[in-house]
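user: At home tonight, take the chain set out below, taking as long as you need, and be ready to discuss the fold:
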Amino acid sequence: MYDYRRGRERGRERDESYRRKGSRRKHKRRRRRTRSYSPSSSRSDSRTRALSVRDDEEGHLICRSGDVLQERYEIVSTLGEGTFGRVMQCIDHRRGGAHVALKIIKNVEKYKEAARLEINVLEKINEKDPDNKFLCVQMYDWFDYHGHMCISFELLALSTFDFLKENNYLPYSIGQVRHMAYQICLAVNKLTHTDLKPENILFVNSDFTMSFNVEKKREERTVKSTAVRVVDFGSATFDHEHHSTIVSTRHYRAPEVILELGWSHPCDVWSIGCILFEYYLGFTLFQTHDNREHLAMMERILGPVPSRMIRKTRKQKYFYRGRLDWDESSSAGKYVRENCKPLRRYLLSEAEEHHQLFDLIESMLEYEPSKRLVLADSLKHPFFENGAIKKKCLSILKERGKREIELYMQHKSSPT
């Protein structure tokens, strides 16, 4: 087995997701797609830039605990930081003093444009899902603060990756995988996210219990609630919009993206299949950073790439006489052979629910996008037949609605 932790920390492409402090990992930013955005619709702060508003040399807004933006957001602490900007925990004085996450984008045009793109998507999500039934992170507000695009979100907890990492990559239980899987399938059923990965799936609350594993002689954490939200819609797209050639973080990238055959919603389904495997085992299915090696791993785990896809791709350099051009005797060939095996051989148990999970993963990892499981159908998969899962999701939504009403009533009754 390869050293998952070392490999993941060494070369994994990082995102610019909304995330908690402690997950400040380096990342490689993708080229962003552009889309229509009208400056006239921007809620810009048109006042002359005050002397007290300053940026550092990297373009970050300089702010401290106690500072108030827009006469509304009181800064409490820093939650996370990336090349895009910072995420601050704030008190929202117009939401009854509720704590929110405020994403403050650098005063750098390419990051501001990416933020506008994300705002457009989040506004469409809010319009189509006003009750927030589909478990995407909720955007409360956005504004331009002296050249810094700012987006206010509900305050979430650790990402599912960060929890895994802090728990020494101990896999989630089959029941936890089931509940998180159902929510993810529900969340991205209506759009194409294009960058699904454990870092972009956050727990609503990452509180945990501790127990001592006698066999491994270590403390282990169990998250109390597996309620999650999908975040980072800066790369999301709708079918009628322009599509970039390459999307998704490497380990979760579908074969049609690697082969530049065009992509749409099925690329998210592939990513989810990879995510569920990672939750179940604690390491990535495709631990690589090279296209040819990635395809070799796919063949080792899933079987040969379909001849139709080989014939259609412009990436003929990866193939020879209709087959993957791969040297099994090379050091890379040995690495793939020793660290990859047919998918079903990763099963941890012969119990029915484990086989059901792998049946779900297999249907999500179909090479041909047209044969890949449709997310609407995935919600009816036998792995989710346990009615308690749906009841649990409905319970979460009910509690969420109750909390929103309470905050509204607090604000309504507060003196102006």
Remarks:
- Residues 1-7, 9-51, 400-416 have pLDDT under 50 and may be disordered.
- The first helix runs from residue 4 to 11.
